[in-house]
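Model it.
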Amino acid sequence: MGDVQKQKGNAQQKDLSEILRIRREKLEELQQTGQDPFAITTYDRDNLNQNIREHFEELEGKTVSIAGRLMSRRKMGKASFFDIHDVTGRMQVYARIDDVGEETYTAFKKWDIGDMIGVEGTVFRTKRGEISIHATALTLLSKSLLPLPEKFHGLRDTELRYRQRYVDLIVNPEVKETFIRRSKIIAFIRTFLENKGYIEVETPVLNTISGGASARPFITHHNALNMDLYLRIAPELYLKRLIVGGMEKVFEIGRQFRNEGIDVKHNPEFTSIELYEAYTDYNGMMRITEKMIAGAAQAVLGTQVITCEGKEIDLTPPWRRMTMLEAVKTYTGTDFDEFKGDDTAAVAAAKSLGVEIENGQTWGDALYKTFDEKVEGQLIEPTFILDYPIEVSPLTKRKKDRPELTERFEFFILGRELGNAYSELNDPIDQKERFLRQVELRNAGDQEASMMDEDFVTALSYGMPPTGGMGMGIDRLVMLLTDSPSIRDVLLFPTMKPKE
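Modeled.
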């Protein structure tokens, strides 16, 4: 079997080499006759394919010029039908030797699938009813020296699609639609927040301290300053400095970097949004979150009831709200309130449910890990999970009536966490104590624990108003609203290990 595959591979390589040779010869012939397509700098295009389809009644019989990639061709002697694709989709073109001229038509017959071309002609409808262009002029704008994947099978190798996204976009039109939707989702979020008085800001990507989340950072070195810097894992601490400074509603959409594993939900660099608003709390963040996501679905998909992974999801507010204690009790039958204050009993209860947890961990650790392993994956409908243990929430205000818990929520759809929010801790004394606890964990070997940020403590010491904050992964939201199974499907250029 291995010999057969090897022979097949050698034959394919030989065929490719022959195609490359022929296309290079065509290019050299064009260049020698002064028709180098790579020397063309512009083309006067006045219409997109979709515009012609949508306004056919106005444009029928009129002259238009379009441009795009030659994707198929049907030759019929002295006439041809071919398809040209632009960013808006396909358009059929009819070209006849008597209309474009013998010299142009002879040259056109040597053009290849994948070439970029310009077409001038009149808009008409064929006998079969298809809106088309009757060409009067054809221009070769750029030469494709590599063949596109075979027409009927396309580019299906998943890894190759991610590595060669440019080919993926050419031959799989639905992929382009995913990224167009991504752009529209982000545009909606910006408009939504700006209409509520938020200001978009930018904060440093290169940080002297890794903070704002629990994650392992990437480390780089600044030569001029001779110092190590961290690629940010979250913009949180800078954004809250702005709240201290009087910018009462701020948000940032930007890249974050975490030196962690890669799977269907994680990429080392990803896009998030974080927003902070003075004089509100995590309840205010819940309201704005559900309205923003439902609004994005309505704006981009035309509905708040979506289908993802074969499941119908209703994003219409209000979403379900459950405390973590309630969720664990509902889905596992174990009430961790029965073990409050008894770390040993809580850890034992978690272990009895099959949770991987070490002896010596706290009640809060046991509660959180039980939720993480046994509950999260069951939260299909949009759900806010409230009131996280203090151990896993170093930047969050405690609940007044339950100091072992915090005013924090995460929200889940289809068993995935999409975002995280707090009533932000604004007590500088408490904040410093929690940083010190994180430093202890870091010194004990936890590379995801936060570092001490003295300047942030100083900022809080000037006084930060009560504040609500929320962070959400844009990539995961796009996965949801485009029914994409992997984060790599919504990243134009996901991180890939180089080929050997």
